[in-house]
Amino acid sequence: MGKEVTGGSLFWKDLQGELDADPASRAAFALSLHTIASIDDVVNGIDERRRKAGLSKAALARRAGMRDAAVRRLFTASDTNPTLRTAATLAAALGLRLTVEPMARGERVEIDRLFAIAAANSEPAPLPAKRRTGRTATRT
Question: Is 55 inside a domain boundary?
Answer without folding.
Answer: yes
